Amino acid sequence: MNRQELYQILEWFSDAGVSDVTSNTRSVQQETKKEISTLTELREIISKIDTPIKKCALNMVFGVGNENADILLLGEAPGAEEDRQGVPFVGQSGQLLDKILASVGLDRTKVYITNILPWRPPGNRTPTNQEIELFRPYVLKHISLINPKVVICLGGTATKALLQTSQGIVQLRGKWTRIDGISAKIIPTFHPAYLLRSPSQKREVWLDFLNAVKG
Ligand code: URA
């Protein structure tokens, strides 16, 4: 394509009122912010997102638990078992998470659980910045629809994604914070998968969950 042909195409888009070449994604995001008023609608919109991780996954993993919960737990992304079952935190990390919940008098019927990414990244790799950017508006919408009082961010990736910070989880853990777009208070803590490798940090996580319960 030469410059003149490119110019003509851009002019055509401009005449048609299209000002952004990524308008397909943007329009879904705008729709997410403005029009989605139920979890069913949100699930439907997310299921239609065109992203490579979806093609490698078995199931979409949306969210689970009490839709009227005061506490929402936000993880990173589904692992292999979550991908198989289509439910967040049902593998080894999930079993530890259930114990942490029980230690503060909670269980899955009292909280809501979701992740930054709704599909398992191939080989359980860390979500890319691009993936986080794509899904963050849907995460904010998801949180707004549940409308919890407290969001517990599980691990560095979920924390960085939600808070849009470059600070590490060691600095942020246990510190209350807020962000634009959601009314809940946020408390970051270590991810259960990290606790499986470093059990000595369990006490810190227990304290963070106790704080979250107190609100
Ligand atoms: N780790 C996560 O962050 N989320 C899950 O759902 C499972 C493991």
Search tags:
215 residues; alpha/beta; Uracil-DNA Glycosylase, subunit E; 5 strands; globular; binds uracil
Helical amount: 40-55%
From the 3D coordinates, which CATH architecture would you assign? Answer: 3-Layer(aba) Sandwich
Tally the structural domains: 1
Count of helical regions: 11
Q: Sum up the overall morphology in one term.
A: globular
CATH class: Alpha Beta
Strand content: 5-15%
Average pLDDT, to the nearest integer? Answer: 89
Structural class: alpha/beta
- CA distance, first residue to last residue: 59 Å
Query: Based on DSSP secondary structure assignment, what is the total number of beta strands?
Result: 5
The major pleated sheet works out as: 5 strands, mixed
Rg, rounded, reads: 19 Å
Uncertain runs are 6-24
CATH superfamily: Uracil-DNA glycosylase-like domain
What's the CATH topology label? Uracil-DNA Glycosylase, subunit E
Question: Would you give an account of this structure?
Answer:
The structure is a single chain. Helix 2 runs parallel beside helix 7. The protein starts with a helix and ends with a helix. The chain is an alpha/beta fold and 215 residues long. It has a 5-stranded mixed sheet with strand order 1-3-2-4-5, sandwiched between helices. The radius of gyration is 19 Å and the shape is globular. The protein has a single domain, classed as Uracil-DNA Glycosylase, subunit E. The chain has 11 helices and 5 strands. The model is unreliable at 6-24 (pLDDT under 50). The site of uracil has 12 residues, from loops.
